[in-house]
Amino acid sequence: MRTRKSTKSSVSITHSIDECIAIEKGLKSIHINKLIKSKDTVVIVPNWVNYKKPDPKDAVVVGQNSLRTIIEIVKSSNPKNIIVATGSDGDKTSKVMKKVGYKRIIDETEAKFIDLNYGPYFEISLNNKRPSSTEINKIIELATVIISFTPLKHHEESTMSGSITNIALGLPPAEIHGYPKKNLGIHEDLHGFITAMAERIAIDISIVSCDPVMIGKGPSNGIARHANLVICGTDPVATDTVAARLLGFKPQAIQYLFNCGKLNIGETDLEKIDIKGIGIKKAEGIFSQNVYGEEIVID
Fold first, then answer.
1. What span, in angstroms and rounded, lies between the C-alpha atoms of 31 and 35?
2. Does residue 172 have a cis bond before it (omega within 30 degrees)?
3. Distances in Å between the alpha carbon of 298 and those of 69, 107, 154, 285?
4. Which residues contact 121 (CB under 8 A, 6 or more apart)?
5. What is the CA angle 91-95-101, rounded to 5?
6. CATH topology of domain 10-292
7. CA geometry: angle at 80 spanning 77 and 83, to 5°?
8. Average pLDDT, consecutive stretches of 10 residues, N- to C-terminus, the chain (299 residues)
9. Concatenated DSSP letters of 151-211
10. Which single residue of 16, 58, 151, 176 could bond 53 by disulfide (Cβ 3.0 to 4.6 Å)?
11. Is residue 216 a contact partner of residue 161, using CB atoms and an 8 Å limit?
């Protein structure tokens, strides 16, 4: 499998009451125009886990207008292909797409769509006990740029859901793994599986939105709070490390992040991450005030 477009661990934290503006600022800050070229096939993987709460304000799935913004920003670099691709975990992807309103966005932006819950497939081996391999849609093999777009969430199994979890659980096909994707053992050691997927799948651009963020019982049954922050990065491990810090976690509190750091998949040391935008201290203050009603600054 290929390596990331950028070897730098650059992460931008942007603040705006308009999520789309925060995304634009964040992607500009990490120089998305230098990461996407005319020959690229760009695959955008949004979090469409299910449609239990189809309104994006509930933080279960990403926003329709935010997805449009990302597609339009990618289009400005004139890549060869722009493909929105994901595989919902709790429901048929096509149902989520129609129920939430993504189909209209994809049609209007003239992006292509591929349901990752179905083939054609290719197989990847994994450094994991069960499953030790998985089939995934061939578009991932053809992609030259992968963008992960997800709300930040507490997660009842993986502790938090960020850019890496979105890819690790969005790519395995439900046609094979089941709804939810548990039939072949993914959830027996979920952190081990997420780590193994992070070793194999290069995420070039991570977009983790805290507008809204889900706290409590995620990934679907928690409480949504608007922190008015967006985290964008060129290193998914660094991006998730910053996101975890806003939730109050160090990397060692989240096993998949700790594992990724030990395996040098990405950077987990905040001192070594090039943090752009408003900075971690200001972000912690804004996040805690908006989410918990009291300002807490640790770093």
1. 7
2. no
3. 32, 44, 19, 9
4. 135, 136, 137, 138, 173
5. 125
6. Rossmann fold (3.40.50)
7. 90
8. 93 98 98 98 91 78 94 98 92 86 94 97 97 98 98 95 96 92 91 98 98 91 95 99 97 97 98 97 97 85
9. EEEEETTTEEE-HHHHHHHHSS-HHHHTTTT-TTSGGGGHHHHHHHHHHHS---EEEEEEE
10. 58
11. no
Place of tokens 């996101």: 243
pLDDT of residue 51: 64
If 0-12 CB within 10 Å is exposed, 13-18 middle and 19+ buried, where does residue 72 land? middle
* Alpha-carbon distances of 188 from 130, 153, 183, 271, rounded to whole Å: 8, 21, 10, 33
Total count of residues recorded for the chain: 299
d(CA 229, CA 177): 34
Nearest to 91 by CA among 136, 131, 130, 61: 61
Three-state DSSP at 221 gives coil
